[in-house]
Design goal:
2 strands
């Protein structure tokens, strides 16, 4: 049993980025979506996002006692595309791990049923 692939749609933000006045709200929504995804990642993945961003010297990274803050709206499209590639990679990994866990659980259930059938057959003899 596999996870529904429709729940794992890749972020396809980079292809639709264009800086027209009437698209500002759409761009804001997409950047907000990226922000939410990054905030909900585990610490290890957030550190990797920070590594990606720290490669670029023109990005201002602000840190205080509440965390690290970066203004996504100031990022170049190439950087946003790199973030999207990493986000999609993480999502695919999560789906694969979940599918493996479901498959393992399925095998455990099958083995358990077969074991019970074997034990019942031994008792009946």
């Amino acid at each position: 049993m596999n996870i529904d692939e429709s729940n794992s749609q890749e972020l396809n933000i980079s292809s639709s980025f264009c800086y027209k006045k009437n698209d500002e709200k759409d761009i804001y929504n997409k950047l907000n979506n990226i922000r939410e995804i990054i905030e909900n990642m585990d610490k290890q993945n957030q550190i990797e996002i920070l590594r990606i961003l720290s490669k670029y010297k023109d990005i201002t990274i602000n840190e205080n006692k509440y965390g690290i803050h970066i203004n996504l709206s100031e990022l170049k499209i190439e950087i946003i595309k790199e973030l999207i590639v990493y986000i999609n990679y993480v999502k695919k990994q999560e789906i694969e791990l979940t599918n493996i866990e479901l498959e393992q659980e399925n095998y455990k259930n099958i083995f358990s049923k077969e074991k019970n059938i074997s034990e019942n057959n031994i008792e009946l003899k």
